[in-house]
């Protein structure tokens, strides 16, 4: 369909028609053709740009039309030549907006965990979004309601001083977060031995917290259940397991203090978590009293940002894919040494 003509153009056509009527009777198409073939300094030559551009508008719109995506373009099968670009656009859209309902249903139907979906699309890893968007810590909440823990869980503990001179460590608080940094468990714990040094300036734990603290046995049992059959992430995690009096299969453990790519940030054999957070994440932690929830979240984020390299290194260290049948992936209570002071 030809574009609608302006009023001035209509008047000009009427004038041309009046001038050509006595000499030749023509159809509308031939009149337009005849008028186009006229020459001379008539009024039609005053607007050459209009005469040239007018017939080209339909052609231009036809060339531009394929470039305008329709609202359903992402739901249609793409042509073979643009398949890669279309798939990339889909992934970018999902990454920016999060997991779509259809993707979540598909993942659930195919028994794919939320962690795997998040890893595949890089969700929650734009900068330090995992740290910024997680809710504030809820101290001593115990097991968080409504949190469905996946395959990975991170731990951090706060310790107080016991024994002669307060040089031995005892558990006073334990915190767990999931793959997305959400709080799974947090509890103050009553030490089994008399506390000599509360280390409040570092641990953040004081005698006042013991009024509502859980017993060591209760906290230990709850934590062991959460560790069961999961990948445990921690920073120098052997110290956390020691005060929890728990063992966990090394094959199912990821330690950010032992990761080879992080060694260059340490002044000794192991880099400090505070240094890794500052150098790799650009965040300040442990500037005063420590928060075991915050430390666990930072540990998990460090692991997530370098998960592929962690997996490669871990596979080379443990080439046998068989699960250790003796422990079956379960954290076992460790017998305390009665003779130790």
Automatic annotation (TrEMBL):
Function field: Exoribonuclease involved in ribosome biosynthesis. Involved in the processing of ITS1, the internal transcribed spacer localized between the 18S and 5.8S rRNAs.
Lineage, highest ranks first: Eukaryota, Fungi, Dikarya, Ascomycota, Pezizomycotina
Protein name per UniProt: RNA exonuclease 4
SUPFAM superfamilies named in the record: Ribonuclease H-like
Subcellular location: Nucleus
Pfam family, one: RNase_T
Comp. bias intervals (Basic residues): 332-341
Leader sequence segment: none
GO biological process: ribosomal large subunit assembly; rRNA processing
Comp. bias regions, Polar residues: 1-10, 69-89
Keyword tags: Exonuclease, Hydrolase, Nuclease, Nucleus, rRNA processing
Family affiliation: Belongs to the REXO4 family.
Gene3D superfamilies membership: Ribonuclease H-like superfamily/Ribonuclease H
Location (main, coarse): nucleus
GO cellular component: nucleus
CDD domains: REX4_like
GO molecular function: 3'-5' exonuclease activity; nucleic acid binding
């Amino acid at each position: 369909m030809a574009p609608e003509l302006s009023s001035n153009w209509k008047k000009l056509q009427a004038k041309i028609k009046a001038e050509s009527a006595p000499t030749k009777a023509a159809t509308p198409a031939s009149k337009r053709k005849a008028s186009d073939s006229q020459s001379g300094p008539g009024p039609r030559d005053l607007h050459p740009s209009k005469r040239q551009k007018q017939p080209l508008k339909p052609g231009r719109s036809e060339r531009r039309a394929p470039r305008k995506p329709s609202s359903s373009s992402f739901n249609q099968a793409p042509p073979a030549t643009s398949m890669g670009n279309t798939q990339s656009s889909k992934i970018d859209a999902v990454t920016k907006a999060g997991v779509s309902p259809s993707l979540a249903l598909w993942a659930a139907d195919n028994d794919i965990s939320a962690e795997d979906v998040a890893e595949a699309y890089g969700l929650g890893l734009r900068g330090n979004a995992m740290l910024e968007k997680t809710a504030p810590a809820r101290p001593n909440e115990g097991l968080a309601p409504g949190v469905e823990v996946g395959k990975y869980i991170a731990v951090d503990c706060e310790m107080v001083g016991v024994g002669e001179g307060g040089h031995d460590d005892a558990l006073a608080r334990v915190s767990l977060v999931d793959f997305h940094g959400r709080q799974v468990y947090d509890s103050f714990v009553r030490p089994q031995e008399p506390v000599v040094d509360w280390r409040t300036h570092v641990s953040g734990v004081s005698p006042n917290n013991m009024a509502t603290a859980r017993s060591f046995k209760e906290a230990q049992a709850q934590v062991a259940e959460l560790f069961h059959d999961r990948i445990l992430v921690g920073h120098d995690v052997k110290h956390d397991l020691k005060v929890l009096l728990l063992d966990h299969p090394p094959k199912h453990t990821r330690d950010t203090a032992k990761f080879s790519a992080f060694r260059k940030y340490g002044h000794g054999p192991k880099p400090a978590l505070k240094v890794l957070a500052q150098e790799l994440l650009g965040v300040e932690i442990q500037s005063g009293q420590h928060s075991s929830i915050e430390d666990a979240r930072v540990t998990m984020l460090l692991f997530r940002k370098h998960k592929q390299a962690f997996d490669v290194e871990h596979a080379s260290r443990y080439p046998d894919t068989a699960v250790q049948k003796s422990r079956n992936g379960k954290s076992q209570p460790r017998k305390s040494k009665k003779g130790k002071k």
